[in-house]
Amino acid sequence: MSPLVAWVTSGDEWVAVEDVDRDPVFAALEARGLHVEAAVWDDPAVDWARFDLALLRAPWDYTEHTPAFLAWLDHADGLTQVLNPPGLVRWNLDKRYMADLDRAGVAVVPTAFATSHDEAAAAVQALAAGHVPGVVGVALDGIDEVVVKPTVSAGSRNTGRFAIGDPAALDLAAVILDGGGEVMVQACIPSVALEGERAVVLVDGAVSHVFRKGPILALGGGFVDGTYTEDITPADATDAELATALKVAAALVEIGRDRVWPDAWLPLLYGRIDLVVLPDGTTALLEAELFEPALFVHVAPGAADRFAAAVAARLTR
Ligand SMILES: Nc1ncnc2c1ncn2[C@@H]1O[C@H](COP(=O)(O)OP(=O)(O)O)[C@@H](O)[C@H]1O
Ligand SMILES: [Mg+2]
């Protein structure tokens, strides 16, 4: 019988539209003789034991239901193979992982974390002052804007770009904290507003394709053009970008030893390394999306099939 793969998604109707990888990857999996079905992670009717593999692809409402999602992850993990592996997902779900990658020697965007209003105010001041204790990442002077966001987030939820001193930055921090979340404040990287970010997609540890995502945040809170829009175009990565992406992948081996994802799961089946260029020219990590990134396979010939081939290989191990 053909192996059966679950494409793990959320139940929101908009996800079926926004998840642009679904159709091309379904076709590529079917072409390789695998069956694939979309399955909603919190649908109690799903029997996860039916599946040979549960592929975490678009469970994007985990940000609003994090404890339930983590409990589901444990549940599914006992019934089928879940990829990327649950231990890594738990680590990658909270952007505090940026501090671990910083410690591992990856150049990360200057970032400070806050669990209270006072800490959020201090975080903005610390970033404005350059590299002071409490800020992880590349030392950067002359910062005049910050980005405030939750540590558990996707799709630019509760994410805003503000001038230093704009009280709206702390208002957004308060919204995040009042909702039970924790805050991260980053130096706003000017190149993102100009040219966007560059994403290096890794499949089985190797570079599959690269794309550019246009600017999303408008200064003062809100989105460029008023709505959340992902403008995706194919791109080439610089050598520095490729090197940084592979450095993140390599760092996972070390970090995984202290946490719980066995070496056997590495290289990762998939991951997306989002990179920016700092004012001094350094390539730095904006985020490492290691369990639910849109891969935008349609921008790169062969990408859907490379992904499908990697999935198929996991099923014949
Ligand atoms: N430090 C930053 N500097 C400039 N722009 C940023 C920064 N952080 C986030 N952004 C913008 O906000 C968007 C969403 O933030 P991101 O960190 O990618 O979180 P997520 O994609 O998980 O919502 C990014 O795609 C980028 O356009
Ligand atoms: Mg992002």
Can you describe what's shown?
By secondary structure, the chain is an alpha+beta fold. Among the domains are: 88 residues, 3-Layer(aba) Sandwich (Rossmann fold); 83 residues, ATP-grasp fold, A domain (Dna Ligase, domain 1, 2-Layer Sandwich), CATH 3.30.1490.20. It is built from 10 helices and 13 strands. It has a 5-stranded antiparallel β-sheet with strand order 11-10-9-12-13. A hairpin with a 2-residue loop joins strand 9 and strand 10. Helix 2 crosses helix 10.
Brief description of this entry?
The chain is an alpha+beta fold. Helices cover 33% and strands 23% of the residues. Among the domains are: 4-84 and 309-315, Rossmann fold (3-Layer(aba) Sandwich); 109-191, Dna Ligase, domain 1 (2-Layer Sandwich).
